[in-house]
Amino acid sequence: MRAAVLHEIGQDKLEVLDDVEAVGFGPGKVKLRVRATGLCHSDVSAMSGVLPQPAPFIPGHEGAGEVIDIGDGVTGLSAGDRVLVCWLPACWTCPACRRGQTQLCLAGFMNAGTPNFKRPGGDVFGFAGTGTFTEEVVVDAGCAVPIPDDVPFEIAALIGCGVTTGLGAAINTAQVEAGSSVAVIGCGGVGISTIQGARVQGAAQIVAVDPVASRREAALRFGATEAVAPDGLADAKQRITAGEGFDYVFEVVGKSVTARTAYENTRRGGTLCIVGAGAMDDNFQVNMFELFFDEKRILPSMYGGGDVLRSYERAIALWRAGRIDLESMITHRVQLAEINDALDQMRTGEALRTCIEL
């Protein structure tokens, strides 16, 4: 079986091998044939060591495909079913799940420490307990979420992570109000989804902020009312808010420096929403006076900040109704053998979202 493998954390290239085997199938498990997978920036962050992940590992967590086989005790799924991959499944029994905060369930993270692939040389892990840069993968049954027949695999893959994360940040976490002003810092796939979520919520002004010109142009097509480079944000703040600051600012980069910029461009009493996944040693700081005096809400958003199954259904409904554009988010399509070209396109900002077809 073919798969793209990172041998050591810190390497910037993947090796496409044909001697990989998906393992771990048994009770409560599902074996999937991956048909499409998106390249998410979190995959690159895991490769570089920003996000913790044991190696060697197969990146990829934004996937969709077909059920090959189901283990004992699995209900609601059958061979041949079309599914998307949920990299953060709910266990439904932990305190977070019982509170209705299923996006905070840790069961999925526990899977990341168990190899679900092997090669002649030893075990191989799957990123976030999945690993979709491969032809087949074994996952917990909760990771395989059925999708309607009219949803293409590449669209379902995007919904499995980036779209759900961005839409949910605007709709679930920040709860953007109609007529409000919004700034989105970082306009890759998740940032574009955040912009679409703010538009669905009825925001009056949506300013996209990104250093890459092609991403700024894309943001305008997806609902931003204007798009600026980082050095143009201060001017936009002055023009649009008379210098007060935006009602909502979304940080979709995952760095303390951009989080600080987001904080400074949020109005007093406004909302800063942290969407980007950053490093454990990158500390965001505010002083105690401004924290008290400005009364800005700082809201992290994990995987869209809400029940992911409901979020999937909502994304599909909005897509069917033409309220959000998911097809145009896919700017590049590649085969697995071209994965390193796709990584370069993501790092330079050339690609908005790349679909790897398997």
List the keywords.
12 helices, six-stranded parallel sheet, globular, seven-stranded mixed sheet, 25% strand, 30% helix, 358 residues, alpha/beta
Question: What is the makeup of the main sheet?
Answer: 7 strands, mixed
Unreliable spans: none
Rg over CA atoms, rounded to whole Å, is: 20 Å
What overall form do the CA principal axes indicate? globular
| Helical amount | 25-40%
Q: Report, as a whole number of angstroms, the end-to-end distance.
A: 11 Å
What's the total count of β strands?
19
Multimer state: single chain
Percentage of β-strand residues: 15-25%
Q: Count of helices?
A: 12
Average pLDDT over all residues: 96
Structural class: alpha/beta
Helices and strands in order, then pairings?
Elements: E1 3-5, E2 15-17, E3 21-22, E4 29-38, H1 41-48, E5 57-58, E6 62-70, E7 82-85, H2 95-98, H3 107-111, E8 117-119, E9 122-126, E10 136-140, E11 144-146, H4 153-159, H5 162-173, E12 181-185, H6 189-201, E13 205-209, H7 213-221, E14 226-228, H8 233-241, E15 246-251, H9 256-264, E16 266-274, H10 288-294, E17 297-300, H11 308-320, E18 332-335, H12 339-348, E19 354-357
Parallel strand pairs: 5-9, 12-13, 12-15, 13-14, 15-16, 16-17, 18-19
Antiparallel strand pairs: 1-2, 3-8, 4-6, 4-10, 4-19, 6-7, 7-11, 8-9
Helix pairs in contact: 5-6, 5-11
